[in-house]
Amino acid sequence: MNPADHGATPVTDDLAERTRSWSAYWSSGALHSCVGSFGGNYAGEVREFWRALAATLPVGARLLDVATGNGALPALFIEDVPEARALQIDAVDLAQVQPGWLALAPEAVRGRTRFHPGVRAESLPFADAAFDVAVSQFGLEYTDTARAIAELRRVVRAGGTLALVLHASESLIVRQAREELRHLAWMLDEAALLDTGARLCEALALAATPEGIRKLEADPAAASLRSNYNALMSQASDRAERSSCPDVIVDTQQGIAHALMASRAAGSALVGQQALAALVVQLRESQLRLRELVECALDRPAVEALLQASGASLDRLVELRFDNRELMAWGLLARLPG
Ligand SMILES: C[S@@+](CC[C@H](N)C(=O)[O-])C[C@H]1O[C@@H](n2cnc3c(N)ncnc32)[C@H](O)[C@@H]1O
């Protein structure tokens, strides 16, 4: 991305739509947004990056996590900073996040960890110099960075730490997001797989009775719809087989198959069509989040421009990698002006 372009709110200015999409995602209970890559919390080099920072935090340090989601970073810090060092955590996110894990944490930790859903990084409800350190993982780049950085400079004390994990334009995560976007565009728009499934619900509802089956057998339009649907499903399977990230296709195929079966079982087209309409909403929301991800990813000049805009002095800028050595993200550690 051209660094000059960065700082604009990505993809869409429709804040309500972005908030809804992320709130829906976090309501699933996911701890973070890379569930395909890490089963539990983040691990490997990215975990080591945060662990190294945790080791430097003084007793009672006040930490702000920007764009926290369901609190993957607060959960890491709570695990990695000994309780005697009593870290104070505030975590903000635009979305209505649901960090269910916090209810299971010890009471002392709960008392020192506060989530602030519905709070934008560009307008933080904290006093000047309230924090020693600001962190963000796959978060700051989603914001209007110029305004969010101005807020971070206000709420973090002079000489405080800024630690960021940022999407990298050529990372595996971003490459896979681009591929998933191509799958979604194909299923939703080019091949209109879900629309075809919705029309087939009519036929499946008829197939609930012997009389309906006789009608269907005599209807050339129904036969043509069925063969069109079968051809699209087989193209979808071919795409999935060739893809390094086939889950979105396989899950959608299963969703459509379930909707069709539901129409047949209930003898009602509407039952399956409603299930498919809900699936389309889910896929469109996922499309929005993936577009945001791709558009906010940074190349090295853009990271350097971000650092310059923050006025912070750089301690470390590293490429964080997955265990298979594929690029995962940028890791940036800097000190805010004193
Ligand atoms: C990719 S998720 C990352 C969540 C979390 N940090 C993690 O590593 O799992 C991006 C998050 O940024 C949040 N977000 C986007 N724009 C924001 C803004 N302007 N202010 C606060 N949060 C924002 C979204 O709601 C979403 O939860």
Give an account of the 3D structure.
- This protein has 338 residues and is an alpha/beta fold.
- It has 2 domains: 3-171 and 297-335, Rossmann fold, CATH 3.40.50.150; 174-291, no CATH class.
- It is built from 12 helices and 7 strands.
- It has a 7-stranded mixed beta sheet with strand order 3-2-1-4-5-7-6, with helices on both faces.
- Strand 6 and strand 7 form a beta hairpin.
- Helix 1 (15-27) crosses helix 11 (269-296), helix 7 packs antiparallel against helix 11 and helix 9 (220-242) runs antiparallel to helix 10 (247-266).
Task: Fill in the keyword field for this structure.
338 residues; alpha/beta; Rossmann fold; 2 domains; disordered N terminus
Please specify the SSE layout and strand pairing.
Layout: H1 15-27, H2 44-56, E1 62-66, H3 72-80, E2 88-93, H4 107-112, E3 113-117, E4 131-137, H5 145-155, E5 156-166, H6 172-190, H7 193-206, H8 210-217, H9 220-242, H10 247-266, H11 269-296, H12 300-310, E6 313-321, E7 327-335
Helix pairs in contact: 1-11, 2-3, 6-11, 7-9, 7-10, 7-11, 9-10, 10-11
This protein binds S-adenosylmethionine.
